[in-house]
Amino acid sequence: MGSVVTRERLGTTVGSLARRGFGDTARAGRLMAEAGLHPERHADIIAALGATADPDLALLGLTRLLERAPDPEEVRAELCADPDLRARLAGVLGASAALTDHLVRHPEDWRELRGADAARMPEAAEARAGLLHIVGADPTEAAPVADPGVAPDGPAHALRVAYRRRVLRLAGRDLTGAQRLDEVAAELADLAAAMLEASLAVARAEHPGDAALCRLAVIGMGKCGGRELNYVSDVDVVFVAEPADDGVDEQAALRAGARLAAAMMRVPGSTDGEGTLWQVDAALRPEGKNGPLVRPLSGHVAYYQRWAKTWEFQALLKTRPIAGDAELGAAYLDAIAPMVWHAAGRPNFVDDVQAMRRRVEAQLPPGEAERQLKLGPGGLRDIEFCVQLLQLVHGRTDPALRSGGTLAALEELSRGGYVGRQDAAGLADAYRFLRRVEHLLQLFRLRRTHLLPDPGTPAGQEELRRLGRALGFTANPVTDLTTAWRRVAGDVRRLHEKLFYRPLLNAVARLPEDEVRLSAEQARARLEALGFVDPAGALRHLEALTSGVSRRAAIQRTLLPVMLGWFSDAPDPDAGLLGFRQVSDALGTTPWYLRLLRDDVRVAERMAWLLGTSRYATDLLLRAPEAVAILTDDAGLARREAAGLAAEADAALRRHDSAENAVAAVRALRRRELLRTAAADLLDITGVEGVGEAITAISAVTIEAALRCATSRVAAQRGEEPCTRLCVVGMGRFGGRELTYASDADVMFVHEPLPGADPAAATETANAIVRELRRLLELPAADPPLRVDADLRPEGRSGPMVRTLDSYAAYYRRWSAAWESQALLRAAPMAGDPGLGERFTELIDPIRYPADGVDEAAVREIRRLKARMEAERLPRGADPALHTKLGRGGLSDVEWVVQLLQLRHAHAVPELRTTSTLPALDAAVAADLLDPEDGAILELAWRLASRVRGAVMLVRGRPGDSIPSDLRDRSAVAGALGYRTEEEGEGAPELLIQDYRRVARRARTVMERVFYDS
């Protein structure tokens, strides 16, 4: 009966062990028996072991400890009674084979994991004093000296044992989650500093003569300097030595300091029964391993002033005195820190830091990059380089960023608005995860490693399982850990590339030191030098944008010193800054706006140019500030296809019940597209043809939407569907798809009664629809007006607004004049019934493309009209040489030449049958109707005149056909067109005038020869 009970109990135990995570349950059962653990009496201990990273390792470690312990029963009793001790000891045994070995060598040290001392983080001074006491040194002395007889095996060995003991205590807190990652890293750094202080005391005891000759300061660098050390890491240091007093020769003092430093470095780096703690690395000193181990303070300063490379200043960012002469260490820090925080002003600073990160990554051994926690893509270095670059660039003016710790710096970067809150939180979480994995990796053997285990090997799988369980992935430790690592690495890489290569960093770094922060008087002088006409007003705008402690003000303080230079590049810096303030006031509380400006410097730069160049674009942007988002990239400024615009307009019509609201929504769409077009124009992303196409397309969509609303409104008022079809025919620049920012939409209205409809009723209905269409388009609104002009209809203003297709046919058959044939060259259906538009086109083609061309009488009439137009329609006082539309060599000259060629030859040359000027000009050249050189001259003149005319509207915000006579406006137009004042020579306005006169003169010569056959 007893044997049956034993077998049942054993089965129960084995099953329970498996559920708790033990891999080899049979072995675990034997070890439990050897350790004197009873499944019932010691259930809490077994449960604690099962909750560790590696239950089998923890059980084996406890068994070994109990074998060596003087009183095993005391250990078991304490473990049963003290849950904190139980959790700490089990956690250490299950995660660290090296610390388990320490406990086996020193079985009494399990007591380090119990009580109040095991639960609290010691102060740095406490760690220093504790290790100095171990070597028999007095911590109150300025230069403590060890007692060689303090321990049987010598002070160095005792020091290594004490260091391991303190790491054991820290690991107990760390592995039970009682201490945050940053606290763990800071305690490790403080412990390393204390170890170096005590090691220096040992070195002084070994070399008393040298200690009397020099003062030696140990400067922490890297993770130790930044108080974010790993469990096992090289401790980077720099040594500063000075003579102990005026009577000591400097060279003798430096030699003594070098011997002391070397002796100090041997203590933690030597190997004995405790193994090696870590190496002290002085390779970051000036000139690296080729330079002297110690230097005087003046030597350090001279080197960094004259010879240091960019990466050396980056390394100095985490500098702090950690051991040795405190006064000398503080003097070193005072001398070096200003150079560190001014390093970002060095030429190519940002590029150098970015190149260094790429070199580090390129040097990784093949096959390791995907497992490298530290150096690989998405690893710790991505985060650290990113944070350090941001600190160095922005820390010149913001002392809050001058922190040696990565997490603390990230928090300040976020608080100051240099990094978005979400991005900073993402990097901080990733940093904690990666450092946690790194710590667990190193804890196992207390060896320096940053490489995740290879999942392709059994040993790698076992290690990954232990890591995964330690991180809380208990269901599928290997899979879950691998998935989490890949996700974190991907997130880090994305944020690294977003922040590390942010163009704003280069822009801020390039600012001269004296321009980053200016006094009021300095700012006024700087604004005047930058070309601000009203520096006092500009100062008021700057103060309004940057005053206060809000996140918005902090981001603006970073942006505006850079943007002032961009404003100064624009024709009107004052208007640019005012516009920026107005847009910022409208959008300042919108989270995405400031994030967009900070994270994508192109938007801020483009805004500065647009606002400082174009009143037209500024007005559009102020009416809808959220449209600033289209400046993000060139794709956002690309001309949209008509089909996409029509679909969006259709959706707007469906969203609104009233015709007024529906058309207002479509007009808002037109306003946005006008801003897109103006921005693309001013930023040289599109040319004059693209501008004409874009404005024509959105105008046609707007008229089509208004026509649909008008038709529905008339139908609703009359209680029946309209009894006629209606088509809007574009004329002039509208029909030629060459509308400008200031153009009216020249149109003709044609309708066709439905079968059986009363003609009079149909015409009355068509007129009602057209009246409603024009009313809807002309409703007062904040949008630029779209005027519909029907003056080119038969009989002009005296003729009916709307005609039937048959009426047009009758009119053109009996009364059509030469000018009307010419006008019809630009006619194209733009809205309404497409079938009717096709029939209208078939009607007018024989009229505008006559089979026998035009007779000489018609040609003479056209020439008389051209001469009369120049004489009568040119505004009084206008300079004919500078009027882009009607002046000599202007748009009219080119277009009338092309249209005469079309009237004469389009019937025989189908390629001439186009409503647009440049395609017709190309067709005339291709058909040998125009000399290629003449064609090139006319094309250049048309393009330049179109660009100037558009620039006048963009700059002034109101139409104008002449190059402005006002010098300020003329300068602004020249700047908008890309003209720049030469360093020695003509100014931009003069260069524009010279170019325009030359091009127009040549075009006029061609026009007179071709148009007048002279």
From TrEMBL:
Gene Ontology, cellular component aspect: cytosol
Domain PII-uridylyltransferase/Glutamine-synthetase adenylyltransferase: 356-500, 881-1011
Ranges for region Adenylyl removase: 1-504
An example Gene Ontology biological process: regulation of glutamine family amino acid metabolic process
Protein keywords: ATP-binding, Magnesium, Multifunctional enzyme, Nucleotide-binding, Nucleotidyltransferase, Transferase
GO molecular function, one term: [glutamine synthetase]-adenylyl-L-tyrosine phosphorylase activity
Keyword Repeat attached: no
EC number(s) stated in the UniProt entry for this protein: 2.7.7.89, 2.7.7.42
Organism: Marinitenerispora sediminis
Reactions it catalyzes: [glutamine synthetase]-O(4)-(5'-adenylyl)-L-tyrosine + phosphate = [glutamine synthetase]-L-tyrosine + ADP; [glutamine synthetase]-L-tyrosine + ATP = [glutamine synthetase]-O(4)-(5'-adenylyl)-L-tyrosine + diphosphate
Family: Belongs to the GlnE family.
InterPro entries: GlnE (IPR023057), GlnE_rpt_dom (IPR005190), NT_sf (IPR043519), PII_UdlTrfase/GS_AdlTrfase (IPR013546)
Region of interest (Adenylyl transferase), residue spans: 512-1014
Name of protein: Bifunctional glutamine synthetase adenylyltransferase/adenylyl-removing enzyme
Cofactor dependence: Mg(2+)
Every Glutamate-ammonia ligase adenylyltransferase repeated domain range: 88-333, 606-841
Functional description taken from the UniProt entry: Involved in the regulation of glutamine synthetase GlnA, a key enzyme in the process to assimilate ammonia. When cellular nitrogen levels are high, the C-terminal adenylyl transferase (AT) inactivates GlnA by covalent transfer of an adenylyl group from ATP to specific tyrosine residue of GlnA, thus reducing its activity. Conversely, when nitrogen levels are low, the N-terminal adenylyl removase (AR) activates GlnA by removing the adenylyl group by phosphorolysis, increasing its activity.
